[in-house]
Hints:
Blueprint: H1 6-15, H2 18-32, E1 37-41, E2 43-46, H3 76-88, E3 93-96, H4 106-119, E4 124-127, H5 130-140, H6 144-154, E5 158-159, H7 169-175, H8 182-194, E6 198-205, H9 211-228, E7 231-238, H10 245-249, H11 258-271, E8 277-279, H12 282-285, H13 287-292, E9 300-303, H14 310-313, H15 322-331, E10 335-339, E11 345-348
Parallel strand pairs: 1-9, 1-10, 2-3, 3-4, 5-6, 6-7, 7-8
Antiparallel strand pairs: 10-11
Helix pairs in contact: 1-9, 1-11, 2-11, 4-6, 5-6, 5-8, 8-9
The structure holds iron/sulfur cluster.
Iron/sulfur cluster (SF4) is lined by residues 52, 54-56, 59, 61-62, 99-100, 131.
Amino acid sequence: MQRINDNEIKQIMSQVPLKELGKEAFKIKRELHPQKLTTFVVDRNINYTNICWVDCKFCAFKRELGDENEGYILSFEEIDKKIDELIAIGGTQILFQGGVHPKLKIEWYEDLVRHIAKKYPQITIHGFSAIEIDYIARISKISLQETLARLKEAGLSSIPGAGAEILSDRIRDLIAPKKLSADRWIEVHKTAHQLGIKSTATMMFGTLEDDNDIIEHWRRIRELQDETGGFRAFIMWSFQPDYTPLKKEFPHIQKASSNRYLQLLASSRIYLDNFPNIQSSWVTQGSHIGQLSLLFGANDLGSTMLEENVVAAAGAKNSMNQAEMIRLIKDIGEIPAKRDTAYRILEKFE
Ligand code: SF4
């Protein structure tokens, strides 16, 4: 298939009816994944702290340092207990994400990762988004490269794409002015890829961006993927406005519609021709749109999410267990398959 350029995708997004867009995205998905497998991973989000200095305006999860009622850092024992529960249901991956705690340095993260890697060698540690890695490097006064190399050495396997939001500084300055720049997000992922650490790319839409900002985001991750091949998947979700400062500042912002989600999902499948996998975001969209997204380009249902705190704090309280995922996938005529972090198939449910 010929590569779609920015003008073409813009035209497609504004002119092609949703149903046709879906058909085209599904065709591309089928070419990439002819075995009709829809994958998922059994994992657990562990938000090791909710203390954070970054003040993203779309966040209802963070608490200030010194908040004695609601601020927390999980102890290693509490983290172990969560991993034990995950193992009991056949989980293979933990997704570690903060809060960007203003005081924790590289040694704390190394100890944590090493502790888990040693105690639970069967669990893959997928953790620390670009903003955390950037800050760990800065507060520890070491380079990005050293930060990532030390975390890898301790047992970190891959990093999530969180914190990308929209990779356009015009939008970042409005919704998360203290967060790292688009260039720096790219630099963190590029450095990780160069060190052999794979990652995912994400996008949060539905705040103040327009289609040009979204296309800029897609262009930047497609270019990096051309260069490094280090992204395993693209995952997109919509802004969840409840209880967020951004909603107070811009009351006109409404939760994105399911149509908009499916339109962007299908368009991303068409544009991101070098991404092997696109995940559905059933956590923000609900299980039925999650299922529909498999007809709009997604080939993976993401995680069963034993625990999710960040979007839940902003009002999205969807949940799904493995049995339900299997049922939804079979329902549209595909074969459910449990995968690991690297998208290797562990078990098929035919
Ligand atoms: S989204 Fe993450 S980085 Fe931003 S304020 Fe919330 S916890 Fe902090």
